[in-house]
Amino acid sequence: MLFHYHFWTPYLEETEKFYEDNGFYISQRIGKYQGKFQSFNPPLIWDDFRNKNILFRIIEVKKGNGNITFGYGKKIMFDHIGFLVSKEEHDKICDNARVLSWKAEISDRRTFIKTPYEFDIELQTHSDVVDLDDNTGKLEKITIMIKSEGLEKDLTELFGKEVQSVQSVIGEKVTIKEAIIKGFLTMNTVDPNGVNVFNCV
Prior knowledge:
CATH superfamily: 2,3-Dihydroxybiphenyl 1,2-Dioxygenase, domain 1
Structural class: alpha/beta
Distance between the termini: 18 Å
CATH class: Alpha Beta
Helix content: 10-25%
Number of helices: 3
Low-confidence stretches: none
Number of domains: 1
Radius of gyration: 17 Å
Number of strands: 14
Order of helices and strands: EHEEEEEHEEEEHEEEE
Mean pLDDT: 95
């Protein structure tokens, strides 16, 4: 199940507010402050730390089946998408990645597969990253802008089946062009990082 995407962005507060305004909640904020990583989770709000020199590594917002993360970057840069899979699916996908000559960085918490399309694929086996009992927030489909053709074919080989939740268009940069999210509160809008977000009721 597609559940996740991640951006690096200079627009952290704006991105957080955008998704919070559309029904997501802030589950964590982790940033480097005075030389060490610390949490700035709710109930803290931006007024509590906005003027501190914090380098945010990750801010996570959740809604049902959806989990979106972002961290500080000097410019907007799409980093990866994530799929929630079983342990058996994980191992088979990693085997298929080797057949494709795609590198897999495997750890106990999550696995990242390096694609030739300038973004990564996260495999997550821990179901606590989403609320499986709540179907709202589900990423029904995303459209990724890439520079070369072949993504859908390669994803079919990687997952051993057609991945209907991801499609591609050709463009000059790599980013998420569109996301269809179940239960998103706004019908048609654009997030601070240029993602066109549509509601799927």
